[in-house]
## 1
Amino acid sequence: QVQLVESGGGLVQAGGSLRLSCVASGSIRSINTMGWYRQAPGKQRELVAAITSGSNTNYAGSVKGRFTISRDSAKNTVYLQMNSLKVEDTAVYYCNYRSFVGVGRNDFWGQGTQVTVSS
């Protein structure tokens, strides 16, 4: 089992910045992917950004150039720096930890943190 604790959400005006953090604990595997997903009201959960244990990154097209994902593997922590925030970035942001076992995978989720961007 892996536990994830997120922090850093809040209310910000459009154009502002926020930094999310997520600390993982428990049965951490050396090879894993950590990422951020978000879910706005009435919409499906979507990938925002992910980073592998080898520091390869993947971003949703809507956040490229504005958001930066990073990790501190020694602290089992992943960060999401969000700049130039837009009203449409408003959502609950969830931290994800993914490990791979054979041909399968295990996903763990944080409780979510609200990000609200006002106009």
## 2
Amino acid sequence: VQLQASGGGLVQPGGSLRLSCAASGRLFTINAIGWYRQAPGKQRELIASISSGGSTYHAGSVKGRFAISRDDAKNTVYLQMNSLKPEDTAVYYCNARTENTGYWGQGTLVTVSS
């Protein structure tokens, strides 16, 4: 499984961004895809995930502001981020979980600043 994350950038507080995670390879082995983020000096944390069955999870810190979705025709998972705050600044990673292991995409930097 290979993952390609994109869509990061600089945005003002209150703005929006949409991250994309394009998957390729043995997609039928994927149980779920998640978005993680890692802010400077902090541990990487799970903020949203979507299962192969379509069930979604959003961490409390982003619930109501971020939304994970997927387009099966494009083999892509999205993270729509609205009402961004400076504390959302981090490198965002997507991860695909299979029965035996996980695969990481490269990170995409999101900076929320005026």
## 3
Amino acid sequence: VQLQASGGGLVQPGGSLRLSCAASGSIASENVMRWYRQAPGKQRELVAAMGSGGIPNYADSVKGRFTISRDNAKNTVYLQMNNLKPEDTAVYYCNMLNGYRTANVYWGQGTLVTVSS
């Protein structure tokens, strides 16, 4: 399984970006796709997740501002980020648990989001 993330960039505070992550390879029908981020000098943290059933989960810090969605036909997960803040600056990684009852976890290469005026 390979994950290809895209969509990062430089945005001003209050702005928006949409990240995409396309999965390819042998993908289980039951899987969880997640977005993590890692800011300089900080640990990687879970931002949002969505299983095949479509129920989203969010970190408290992004609730009401970020929206995770997925297109199962395209094996793609999105992260719509609105009202961005400087503290959202980080490298964002997509992640897949390929199969609910497995330990098959895959990571994308990361995409940098910089929120600055």
